Amino acid sequence: MSVTRGPTSYKNSYLTLHITLDGIRPPIWRRVVVPATISLDLLHDMLNLVMGWEDYHLHEFLFGDFRYTEDPEESEHGEDENGVTLGSLIRGEGMKFKYFYDFGDDWQHTVKVERIENIPDDHKVRLTCLGGRRACPPEDVGGIHGYTRYLQALADPKHSEHKNMLRWRGRFDPEAFDMEAINGELAKLTRWSRSRNR
Asked: Does 3 map to a domain?
């Protein structure tokens, strides 16, 4: 079953999105600008990059009752995200949808459409990070509870797992966020991304 597509006028718009990693306090979040014509598969790449994931695991988008993922093997796994544009699924400002990454660690993100604005004539919208806070957890850390234990072990040299965690990932700053570096990587993503229907 296909979800009814959104207004075609959004194809000439850009969207400001606010992404929050659910369940962690203080929050880990990013604010980005994307063209409404961005395909869900490129949006997945962008979300991995701005959040700090390494694209090792499966993912899924959830728009209400409708699920989209990469190369679903069965219909119950959702629809193929390839070629589906974000603007075709958006209903307006304030709308929220979910992005799931790594079904083992179960990272859930809430994405809110903060603004929808028309693209001026002869203007190209670039993928841009406008702001954010805090570092993404390391891959395969064990979800929210595993991340909490990881931070506790790193912070306490007397913790039984302190040395093991240092060997595993080295030093880790949970407060780190480098917007300039993220935007540099977004420029590369736009330039080198594989051919897509956008």
From this structure: no
